[in-house]
Amino acid sequence: MLAKNYILHSAQRIKPFSISFRMKLFFLYLMSAFFIAAGITHFLKPGVFLGIMPKFLPYPLQLVYVSGACEIIFAILLIIPATRHIGAWLLILLLIAVFPANIQMAVSFYQDKNPYLWIAFLRLPFQFLLIWGAWVYTKL
């Protein structure tokens, strides 16, 4: 019994260095970098995001800045182990909140016969992939 407990305890200590854990950590930093870069872009090129903002939302420029700041802050929370859980959940909520902008982008690109329509449609399932990715980090 004592040997069994020692082996289980040793395996739990080694787990953080497993390949699976290292892969999750790599993608955690990749995802955080993606959101930090996207958030910074909201401030450097707000016009890009104003163009996809649904028309029914008030204060579009302010919402672009708020969503950019949220992306940066939530990505930083995701990096810090003590705040990772809340950062992941906040990213999920943010991704759900901005999904209408991605739909608006696809509709606008379709109506304008924009040659980058395929990118707009690719963003829609990519959003779900990002939500799933953030959900993985609610457990890490």
Fold blueprint:
Blueprint: H1 2-14, H2 19-44, H3 46-50, H4 60-79, H5 84-111, H6 117-136
Helix pairs in contact: 2-4, 4-5, 5-6
Strand/helix succession: HHHHHH
* Proportion of strand residues: under 5%
Mean pLDDT: 88
Largest sheet, described in full?
A: none
What fraction, in percent, of the residue positions are helical? over 70%
Q: In angstroms, what is the radius of gyration?
A: 19 Å
So how many helices?
Answer: 6
Could you say how many structural domains there are in total?
Answer: 1
**Derived structural class:** mainly alpha
Number of strands: 0
Which regions are unreliable across 5 or more consecutive residues at pLDDT < 50? Answer: 1-14
Question: What can you see in these coordinates?
Answer:
With 140 residues, the chain is mainly alpha-helical. The protein has one domain. Helices cover 80% and strands 0% of the residues. It has six helices and no strands. α2 runs antiparallel to α4 and α4 packs antiparallel against α5. It is globular, with a radius of gyration of 19 Å.
